[in-house]
Amino acid sequence: MSSSDVERLRPLLSVIERRNGGFKKAHLAALAGKLSVCREVSATAVPADIVTMNSLVAVQNLDSGEVYEFRLVFPGGYDAYGAYISVFSQLGSVLIGSKLGSVVALKSPKLQRLKVQEIRFQPEASGRFDL
Hints:
Blueprint: H1 3-20, H2 26-37, E1 56-61, E2 67-73, E3 84-86, H3 90-95, E4 103-107, E5 111-121
Parallel strand pairs: 2-3
Antiparallel strand pairs: 1-2, 1-5, 4-5
């Protein structure tokens, strides 16, 4: 993962953990665990086939065949229509750091398998290190 993404996410997760006396949602604990074991690289070294913050991605539900497109954003940047998904949502937390073509599992309320079908925009690959 991009070291700048990790450096921004860790303190936000720490605030949630302190405020709630731990993580009340399993996907936030899983995200914190993912951040603690991920390989951090500079923004210029992030492979173009990895989902990072502010990436525009298309995912396909492998059960229904439906394709969804959204931008992965920091908390507070999401919208009610689903065009922007917070990294702190269950979907966002499983997708951050995922590789193009990988399949992730989402439990809401039943298990869904989602394939990262396309990364239509990734800030690092586009030289947008300010996002």
